[in-house]
Amino acid sequence: MTGRIDIGMQGEELAAAYLSAWGWSIAARRWRDGTPHGLKTDIDIVALSPDGVYHFVEVKTRTAAPGPDRRPEAAVTPAKAQRMIRAAERYMAAGKLDGEIAIDLIAVVLDGGSETPVIRYYADVAR
């Protein structure tokens, strides 16, 4: 049986490949604030789009199951979105980076009966 962490890592790999196919550069994976008393939120993917925007991407992966509460998108709460904004600001400050940021979501659904995962991209899920 595949564990939850393995499913999450598979979703992150698929999401990174999806963004790379758009011509985006993956700047960081699984970034976590390393300062003392840092934020407890990690950023799954930090990507730089060709137009120079830094995208902080939360990846939510689920195996196929019926019901609206099993949609990966349902796992991003307003509180999680706010933590992502703060983490993005810390990432930019830590790297002394300047530029536009976007908080995005990629939902990945893995279906054991299909070889093709479903990937849905949502831009600017938080401000």
How would you characterize the overall build of this protein?
InterPro entries: Restrct_endonuc-II-like, tRNA_endonuc-like_dom_sf, UPF0102_YraN-like. Belongs to the UPF0102 family. This is UPF0102 protein NCTC11190_00252. GO terms for molecular function: nucleic acid binding. The structure is a single chain. Helices cover 28% and strands 35% of the residues. The chain has a 5-stranded mixed β-sheet. It contains 2 helices and 5 strands, in the order H-E-E-E-H-E-E. The chain has a single domain (4-126), classed as Trna Endonuclease, Chain: A, domain 1 (3-Layer(aba) Sandwich). It is an alpha+beta fold and 127 residues long. The termini are far apart. The chain has helices at 4-21, 78-94; strands at 25-32, 42-48, 54-63, 101-110, 118-126.
Name the poorly predicted regions. Answer: none
Tell me the structural class: alpha+beta
Report the sheet-strand fraction. Answer: 25-35%
Tell me the CATH topology.
Trna Endonuclease, Chain: A, domain 1
Summarize the entry for a quick read:
Helix content is 28%, strand content 35%.
